[in-house]
Amino acid sequence: MPQYLLPGIALTVVAGLMSGNCMLPMKFTRSWKWENVWVIFSLVSLVVLPWTLAIALVGNLLETCHALSIRQLATPMLLGAGWGIAQILFGISVERLGLGLAYAIIVGLGAVLGTLVPLFLDQRTAGKEHAMGYILIGVADMVAGIFLTAWGGQIRERTAPQTTRTLLHQGYPGAIALAVLCGFMAPMLNYSFAFGQDIAGEAVRLGNPAVRAAYAVWPIGLAGGFVPNIDYSLYPLSRNRTWSSFRSVSPDLFWSCLMGVLWMGAFALYGMSASYLGPLGTSIGWGLFQIFMIMTATLSGICTGEWKNAPRFETLLLGLGLICLTSATVLLALGNR
After folding, report:
1. Between the CA of residue 116 and those of 207, 238, 288, what are the distances in Å?
2. Cα–Cα–Cα angle for 36, 266, 148, rounded to 5 degrees
């Protein structure tokens, strides 16, 4: 068992709590439109905080970057750009398919691929045969939990006429294909972190502890993700002529910055947890992170009354889904022993 397994899981729980609620402050904005909020959120979460944390916590940061090859720097950056495109596709998929179905496809694929791809491509030798069995069963359990919770949410959404009209007026097969593509690209941020470990390794070589060295990876990977996110925000700012909304900064600026703090804080803690979880940290850690994020988002929906009048069948699906996600957590933790 890794020496710091329990602290690693605890950090992942906190990361999931933060990530599952990072979009909640958007509900409290007053005069800003989506594009105003997203510009500030992208700047804070993808540029300001990653570089601030890296400069504050990683010694010899510039020397670390100078010692790496172009390929070692470009790989996490390009993978981060792929994740940035997936962010855009996620919003489009939710609009076309509804949150329940889009969430099941995208988060389901993202959770599975983000867990298994680093495991089989980079970490397979670190996992023993019995551990691999726990991990694979845990991933299957995670998929079942995501499917059940999303199914319950989709049935509940279908009671709204607007959702039905959206499905009828949009090209449904094309929307499904777009969601699948998004699901394949969504875990690229984890690939960026997993396959950008040469950066962390160089930071360790220059005297940084492994936990802090992880912060050197995020500015590089997230720089790639920043480009598509900011481009997609600037276009509606010009089209809708909402630049003038920035004249009114309070309290919308605070809520937009809080979104960025919660989001980046979640991934910063995930990076720390991955180092605590040992050689399989970027695969098992990602699975646990996704589980806790989904559970947090679901429970937040329950607490805010989204499921208050839901029929018994939908509530049963939700409960079964949460049970599956809980058991998946146990199995993935056992697989990391």
Report:
1. 31, 41, 13
2. 95
Say if residue 334 is exposed, middle or buried (CB neighbours under 10 Å; 0-12, 13-18, 19+).
middle
Nearest to 204 by CA among 67, 326, 96, 6: 67
Residue 207, classed as helix, strand or coil, is coil
Q: Which whole number is the average pLDDT over 271-296?
A: 80
Structure-block tokens of residue 49: 């905080």
Q: What is the DSSP string of 257-287?
A: HHHHHHHHHHHHHHHHHHHHTGGGHHHHHHH
DSSP labels, 41-57: HHHIIIIIHHHHHHHHH
- Cα Rg of the chain (Å, integer): 20
pLDDT, position 329: 79
Q: CA 191 to CA 205: how far, in whole Å?
A: 22
Task: Please give the angle made by the CA atoms of 219, 19 and 190, to the nearest 5 degrees.
Answer: 45
**C-alpha to C-alpha distance for 314 and 88, rounded to whole angstroms:** 29
Residue 8 near residue 281 (C-beta atoms within 8 A): yes
**Tokens found for residue 271:** 């990076």
Kindly state the helix (H) or strand (E) to which residue 89 belongs, with its residue range: helix 70-97
Structure tokens, 256: 């937009």
The three-state secondary structure class of 60 is: coil
Contact 137, 331 (CB under 8 A): yes
260/264 Cα distance (integer angstroms):
6
User: Which band of pLDDT confidence, cut at 50, 70 and 90, is reported for residue 164?
Assistant: very low
Judged on CB neighbours under 10 Å (0-12, 13-18, 19+), 171 is exposed
Give the position of tokens 């909402």. 242
pLDDT at 299: 76
Contacts for 49 with CB less than 8 Å, ≥ 6 apart: 260, 261, 264, 265, 268
